[in-house]
């Protein structure tokens, strides 16, 4: 079966190349363009003409040069060696590229996604004679200290193991032979998978376990479930990237895939330098040992940017299939949409809203639908999850932007970043009134069993106060603060405490950067118990000023800096807070 | 032997369609010879079959269909560089305009450059002292950063940019920066201001200027910033110098881009700007930073004048998404007579936290800075409230914040054109202003720093 065809370039316009003589080519086949050997992908076929988006700079290309199809759709290599790697949008390892080409990314370089020389120590989990089906685990490789790479039977294969051996192998060495009737498959540790096609699973499940992020405003107010989807839209400077980085650092996923899609080069460098230094709060190992980076920065070729999101999510699905919980962050999906728009414009397609192609909402929906908590292929029915979090960068922070609207239609969590909060240096600048999470009901039983029975009530109580605060501020703006009743003033005080002492979190402070559920719960409890005691005290002739002056208020302002090892300090702080309010009431009574 | 074509078919704006071509490549340099012998340059924007679409850099005046000759040179637009470019003034196409001889190039570089491999980058983390408190203290500039100035018409951005170029030093070494100045479509007076300021302070000896004036062909503006950055990359990564690149005014650059896009009849994006404006801008802005293999660096300060002072206009908006923060100049502050009129609240330096703190500036820098931000934000909020309710209705605490905001603008933000404050002076000033507030309100500062640095008895008027 030789599908390879050779054609000739007839037109070059930026990243778009049109070639003729491509009768046998198929849609989305990868092609090699010109003698410079640039990588491209067929995105339109008309008669014997193919429109090709080229993943590299097309300067110096012209009509008459050859184009050759590989007969393969754009695929990634899946196997040991992906963790700790940094890839470009079409899975070329950037460290190897630097070894070949130096500081700048030049064209026509071909480096396979997985290192062909490196040997991995393979330990079989099945033996000759066993019957296996697609997804069954053949054996394992300890890829990093954090990740055990499970070698699976590729989708679509099954049969009886003829031979399997432990030992040290490269990703192209045969590790097992599988007989399926007449056919014999020679299995290696590497699979190839086309990026635009979702990897199969048995069954999709509802997300019922929260993805713990250590970020108070997210975990407590707007949680995301494992296998859920979330988006973070916001104007520039509102802290999208910091939120994404915080999630990549602290989320309790076993694998993190971070896609830098059309963003700043320095941000990827930051991740590259910082993650090996940072310790995972659960295992104490460097965070890099569970991270894969896909970096297609804004100045790298625009077509490869379009591919980078698919490259990322395919890798995420592969680790999900092993039974892991994977989180994929894409920063930013707007740049991906712009890449679509640019290619669409060059294809002279009829534009939809704001010049974006009419199929934009479909593409966005397809991407987020690849997230989810699933029963994986294989006979052991293990469960894996991909949680997808996408940043959106709407022009001017305007949420009516087509990318934001198409995203909100599919995602279940909306963290609304606001520049006004960012100016006040309230970080994370997630607006507590407009954001939402649709996972509260799914996650409720987890929170109530694993954290505390009154968790939901505490959250609702805090949210109600924040809502009330917004109303009261409107009134205060018209009539002045003094015209408010003492109980309303107390609401304002407590809401401010929730905002400043609980929701505000300093990503750059060594302790404040991450808060466990138990710390979050205790912090919120202190604020709410202090509030409840104060409400009672107000009813017994204590003035709001007296409460506001209590020394314990300052301690509450600093409770965020209490480390995870000394959380009992929070309990004694809570007691002190309530006692100080009580003492006020007693004093008031004594005076009467 | 280069083929010559006399087959021009169409001329629309700066675009020329040449027919019956063969072997023409995309993005190739083109020479167009007028009957008078005058030579114009351009590049191919699209090649399709036997036609090539050429964009002229210098406008199409005088070009005609029958008598002009077109040559395709088989290479992209290049700039010849050597150490001798320092101290020189060029036009937007890299030709000397200071009356001096042309530079004998050590090498010729394609002005489009190639993207820096993210893996090869070193993270910017060294503090640059600009001597301006609103920048150093709150929106710190870091070596290798790209930090634009968002300004408006009539605001003093040239003064501020020149002051930064003059005063910027790497702390500790006192080492000064080489300055690469790229001017796109600015007026003679503005260009002259920079040139004479560089001459006055002697900075000209370590500066390279690429000047495209308002009456130069708009199309040359596309090349000017790339010329400047190519020179900067050579100085930084070949000669290991620290380079400060000032690009003014990016708004003119974007308008030139729109002109070409419109002439090509492309589907326009927001406000008529092309849909690829983001990608195009990124190929300018991303040419900043540091490399692991070189001790040099490129720090970029593009200037953008926001039409109608509107931050959501596509040019500042897309810029903000690529650059690492922004310094915003504010008209109300300017009217109050405050120089530099930097509105610190919407201004931001994303790399601040990497460039400050113990060993770099001072351990309490970040906390003091956060506290100043929070206090000023609250002060401004109180001032708004006071407009409605009257000052008398404010609580005692609020009054303190009210006063703080005023004093902050007057003492901290305001400074002289030649006033060069060290970072210690800036932080000390910050502490003195914070004494206007109740000590219990200093929630963003760690207790240990309050104990160590809180000033005893100071008078702030």
UniProtKB/TrEMBL annotation, chain A:
* InterPro entries recorded: ATP-synt_VA_C (IPR055190), ATP-synth_a_Xtn (IPR031686), ATP_synth_asu-like_sf (IPR023366), ATPase_a/bsu_AS (IPR020003), ATPase_F1/V1/A1_a/bsu_N (IPR004100), ATPase_F1/V1/A1_a/bsu_N_sf (IPR036121), ATPase_F1/V1/A1_a/bsu_nucl-bd (IPR000194), ATPase_F1/V1_b/a_C (IPR024034)
Which reaction(s) does the protein catalyse, per the Swiss-Prot or TrEMBL entry? ATP + H2O + 4 H(+)(in) = ADP + phosphate + 5 H(+)(out)
Q: Where is the ATPsynthase alpha/beta subunit barrel-sandwich domain?
A: 111-196
What residues does the ATP synthase A/B type C-terminal domain cover?
Answer: 446-545
List the GO biological process terms. proton motive force-driven plasma membrane ATP synthesis
Which Pfam family, just one, is annotated for this protein? ATP-synt_VA_C
Q: Which CDD domains match?
A: ATP-synt_V_A-type_alpha_C (cd18111), ATP-synt_V_A-type_alpha_N (cd18119), V_A-ATPase_A (cd01134)
GO MF annotation terms: ATP binding; proton-transporting ATP synthase activity, rotational mechanism; proton-transporting ATPase activity, rotational mechanism
Where does the ATPase F1/V1/A1 complex alpha/beta subunit nucleotide-binding domain start and stop, copy by copy? 214-437
Q: Where does ATP bind?
A: 234-241
Assigned EC number: 7.1.2.2
- What keywords appear on the UniProt entry? ATP synthesis, ATP-binding, Hydrogen ion transport, Ion transport, Nucleotide-binding, Translocase, Transport
Q: Where is the ATPase F1/V1/A1 complex alpha/beta subunit N-terminal domain?
A: 9-71
A Gene Ontology term for the protein's cellular component: proton-transporting ATP synthase complex
Q: Function, please?
A: Produces ATP from ADP in the presence of a proton gradient across the membrane. The V-type alpha chain is a catalytic subunit.
Family according to the record: Belongs to the ATPase alpha/beta chains family.
Recorded protein name is: V-type ATP synthase alpha chain
Species of origin reads Candidatus Abyssobacteria bacterium SURF_17
From TrEMBL, chain B:
Every copy of the ATPase F1/V1/A1 complex alpha/beta subunit N-terminal domain together lies at 9-74
List each coiled-coil range: none
InterPro entries per the UniProt record, alphabetical: ATP-synt_VA_C, ATPase_a/bsu_AS, ATPase_F1/V1/A1_a/bsu_N, ATPase_F1/V1/A1_a/bsu_nucl-bd, P-loop_NTPase, V-ATPase_su_B/beta
Among the record's GO biological process terms, what is one? proton motive force-driven plasma membrane ATP synthesis
Where the record annotates domain ATPase F1/V1/A1 complex alpha/beta subunit nucleotide-binding, the positions are: 131-349
Which Gene Ontology molecular-function terms are recorded?
ATP binding; proton-transporting ATP synthase activity, rotational mechanism
Question: What is a single Pfam family found in this protein's UniProt entry?
Answer: ATP-synt_ab_N
Q: What are the entry keywords?
A: ATP synthesis, Hydrogen ion transport, Ion transport, Transport
- Which segments constitute the ATP synthase A/B type C-terminal domain? 354-454
Q: Which domain of life is it from?
A: Bacteria
What SUPFAM superfamilies does this protein map onto?
A: C-terminal domain of alpha and beta subunits of F1 ATP synthase, P-loop containing nucleoside triphosphate hydrolases
Tell me the function of this protein.
Answer: Produces ATP from ADP in the presence of a proton gradient across the membrane. The V-type beta chain is a regulatory subunit.
Regarding protein family, the annotation reads:
Belongs to the ATPase alpha/beta chains family.
Protein name (record):
V-type ATP synthase beta chain
Q: Which organism is it from?
A: Candidatus Abyssobacteria bacterium SURF_17
Gene for this protein? atpB
